[in-house]
Amino acid sequence: MNIKSIFLLPIALSSSLLAQACNNSKQKDKQKEVTFSNEIQSANKTYNATQDTIPISTADLGNFPFFGLPENIRYESKPLQRNYDEIYFPTNRTGQLEKIGGRSFKSNMINTNNSEWSRPYFIKSYDEAIKAVGGVKLFEGKFKYEQIQFMKENAEYLGEEGSLDFYNNTIHSYIIRRPDGDDIYIQFDANTAGGAIQIVQKEAFKQTISIVKSDQIEKDLNEKGKTVLHISFDTDKASLKTEGKEVIKEIAIVLKNNGNLKLAIHGYTDNAGTKARNHILSEQRAQAVVAELSTSGIDESRLTVRGFGSQNPVADNTTPEGRAKNRRVELVKQ
Prior knowledge:
about 325 residues, CATH 3.30.1330.60, four-stranded mixed beta sheet, alpha+beta, seven-stranded antiparallel beta sheet, 7 helices, 11 strands
């Protein structure tokens, strides 16, 4: 063997060993990538689930709000329960916010006097209880700036009992799909001192305000000097809905049957929006009533208009039912 061969052999062997080492390293990296990819896919089975792919739960959940308290945890004060409310929930892994309407439950929670608060214990308790009855996690994370701004501008009565701290805390959101479509949405958060939970069982809003007929309007005017009507307008507009026009037809009947009757038409709103905006809107809606009566042949000289905005509420503005009652038109006999 010549000297050239003596030097080439180690180099060849070294190159072979190096190539083999590189291949082994690449295989290990690929295995790691596959494992990591599988972990992501497994996680996304939870976070990427859509309404159509989430399995329906037929578990017997008992009575609303369905979930009791974990051991050594109590309500900080009396929970808020409403027959109908609208609350925003993050409904996918990106935190897309959706307004869910239905029966609601909200409460803050703290530890009992003989125990220390544990954030992991609180979260794990509800996570396992929800999943045990077929619930699926929709979102877990902190809200981004855009989400926080959206909530500040659109969410109702932030800061009351059971409000989540979406400024600072991680939000956990779940859904339990039900056979009849009355799906249950749950979201909660916690810090080092306590937690909060919100539950909504989805349900369509049921209108409980019926159209007052002409004979009742006339009776109220004669006995009370005024009548209160709930005339339907488009949201934040003075354009009448079909059912709103039906109410005005009843007013026209009264005016036609009583040729000397003159009415002051007073518009009112709920407290959503600014005072200035509400004042303008209430006056525009009262004027829309006059314009509609005019198309029915009523002389506008018999009618006067005034807007009061959100003044003189007749119901609680913190509930959807109350706000619906405050959005009204009052006819005052002149």
